[in-house]
Amino acid sequence: MCVRKEMLAFITRVASWNLKTIRSKNDALEVIYFEAGKQSKLIMPLVWLRDHCSSTKYYHFQTNQRKSNCTDLTNLAKIKNENDVRVNRDDSSMVIDWIDGHRSFYEIGDIIGKGKKKKEVAIEKVIDLWDSKTLKEVPRISKSNLSLPDFSVKLFKYGVVIIDDVEGTAEATEQLCKSLVPVHDTFFGQFWVFSNSASEDEPAYEDTAYGNEEIGPHTDGTYFNQTPGLQVFHCLTPAKTGGDTVVVDSFHCAKLLKNEFPEDYETLCNTKIPHHYLEGEVPGSSIHSLSLEKPVIETDSFGNITQIRFNPYDRAPFACLSSSESSASDTIKFYEAYENFAKICHNPENALTISLKPGSVIFIDNFRVLHSRTAFQGYRQMCGCYLSRDNFMAKARPFLRQITSTFYEW
């Protein structure tokens, strides 16, 4: 690029985005501007600006999709000289004449809004981490007062919500679920009715969920590469004794692990383990599902937790044996970290216990909240399903923006 390193200075009259100067900087533009009276600087790569050209030649406004196939983007992202970048007459936008003759118009506020990297936001500022002391009971909504905004905000903040006053039938439960979020289908089917005494109408799988033994805190579907996002349960027939549902905020537990055992926390973030779902008496005889290379604790670029995959029961064999002593040491560290996390997740102080009854449907964020079941005696019948997380978020984002403008990707 033949751009001389000379300053192109101009002052605009824009109140919110007061552009001050632009100068070429290698294959980028250095933009100096005032935001709310404070001077800031951004480096805008020319290739990024060309990629974000909003002309009808390169952007389809009806579908909000780019038209470029990116096969020659870097070659087109060049200018001949400094005069090819200039401020428009309205003093709030700039024009770039590219080397191929195409002209792009940019609103200063628009491109800054699109390209400025977001500041780090702690997830605890927008959701409520909880234990048995800080959350006395699961948030509830009566079906007669049910609204998608209220449901979305409660599920986002706490990871669990109960809808009461639902007719105690599988049909009513399924109708309620589909009215809120599309179903996430798996080989278990779209909607299930199951018990500890399966009949022809209740298909049984070789899974502890279909028995009456105690099941410890866990997330579902760790053996799926696309983990189910939301879990739904409705107890149609309670057990004679026992069978309570226990929920645990695993994000809170992970924070406790990080504070007390920071090295263990990093180990669970960085070690990827497999999970599987098997059927058949011979191990490995019928692998229905297998997920490899997934960490127990998944985080975003800011270090915020985005998902917990914790299921001690469905872990696949951990292929770790080698001639390397360091590999053996890493394996031992993993088991120590997993054990410490398990202890925190099983601590009753971090759990809420609910005796589900007909008429109360519980919705659980399967990326965040662990669920478990106490042992029980007698017949117990449940129904439920998985719901699509992506589709839930597509519906919920407009309402979540009302409680946070900086962290709603959840």
TrEMBL record:
Residues 155-386 form the TauD/TfdA-like domain. GO terms for cellular component: mitochondrion. Pfam families: TauD (PF02668). GO terms for biological process: carnitine biosynthetic process. GO terms for molecular function: iron ion binding; trimethyllysine dioxygenase activity. Coiled coil: none annotated. The keyword Nucleus does not apply. This is Trimethyllysine dioxygenase, mitochondrial. The keyword DNA damage does not apply. Keywords: Carnitine biosynthesis, Dioxygenase, Iron, Metal-binding, Oxidoreductase. InterPro entries: AlphaKG_dependent_hydroxylases, GBBH-like_N_sf, TauD-like_sf, TauD/TfdA-like, Trimethyllysine_dOase. It comes from the Eukaryota. Its cofactor is Fe(2+); L-ascorbate. Belongs to the gamma-BBH/TMLD family. It comes from Caenorhabditis remanei (Caenorhabditis vulgaris). Pathway: Amine and polyamine biosynthesis; carnitine biosynthesis.
